[in-house]
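This week, look over our next protein:
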Amino acid sequence: MSTDDAPILDVDALQQQGISAQDIAKLRTAGYATVLGVVQATRKCLTKVKGLSEIKVDKIKVAANTLCPQTFLTGAECALRREKVVFVSTGSASLDALLGGGVQTGSITEVYGEFRTGKTQLSHTLCVTSQLPLDMGGGEGKVAFIDTEGTFRPDRVKSIAERFGVDPQAALENVVVARAHNSEHQMDLITALAAKFAEEQGAYRLLIVDSILALFRVDYAGRGELSDRQQKLNQMLSRLTRISEEFQCAIFLTNQVQSSPDASAMFAGGDKKPVGGHVMAHASATRVYLRKGRGEERVAKLADSPDMPEGEATYKITVGGIMDA
C-alpha cells in the first residue's frame, strides 16, 4: 500500500515493534515525529541522534520499515496517487492555468525574481486561498509561514481575506508565523513544523518560506564558504521535500536573483538567475520567474515543471492580492 493511502503514523507506533520509549523520545527530540520520517532518514542521519548507537539505529530502521513498507507501485497506482494532489489557487486564473491548476501539494514550488515583482504578495495571497474550500480552488487547510526578511503583514492577509469572503480574523488564526533570524534557526523552525504537522494530522496544507536563501547569503558571505552553504542548503531542501511527501502539503519558496552576464539558457530571465545554483534547481519541482511588465502588469514565466509546458501569464498586484491583469 502507498504511504499516501495510510494514515500518518506517529513515531510512538515504533513501540509496537519493541523500540523503547526512551529511544522514541530521542527521535522526537531530533525532529523525527512520524514513522515515515524515520523511514526517509538515512542511517547516517539517525546515528547522529544523541544516544542512538548503530545497533539501535539498525533496529529502529527495521521496525520503521515493517510499519511503513516502501514498495514499488504500478503506473496505475501512481496515477491514483496523482488524483489526490490538491492545487491551491494563486488568485489569478491565468497564473493557475500556467501552473496546471495552482500550487500543488506533495512538491516544492519556487518563485524567483527582483523586488516588487509580487513574490511576497503571492505568498500572502496563498495564505488565504489555502483555506478556501476545494471547489473554490482552495486547500481547506492551515498555513505555516517562515519569514526570513520580516515581510509578513497581517493587514495584507486581512484585506485578501475580504476579497475572498473569508472572515479576516479567522484567516489570521489559521496562519502560524515564525521569524527566522539565521540559517540554523531557519532549519530548527522547519524541524519544529514537522512535529507540529504530525501532531495536527492533515490540518496544514501549505508551508511558505519567504525567502529561502536570504539568511544563507548573510551567514555564508564569501566564496570560500560557498561549498558549506550549498551543503547546508541541500540538507534544508531535502528536509522540505520529505515534509511535502510525508504530510502531503505544498511547499512554496520565494527566492532572490543575482546578475550573471553569462547566464545560461537554462534560466528564464536572461542576465538574472536565481540564487542557489544547481542545488536549488534540482530541489524545486516547479520554478517560476517573475518580472515586471508594462505599467502595473507583472509577468510569470514557467521556467521548469515536471508536467506543464513552458509559457507565460500576466497578473497584477492589488489590495486583494494577486489577480488577473
Summary: Residues 183 and 215 are 5 Å apart (CA to CA). The longest strand covers residues 297-304. The chain has a mean pLDDT of 93. The two ends are 45 Å apart (CA to CA).
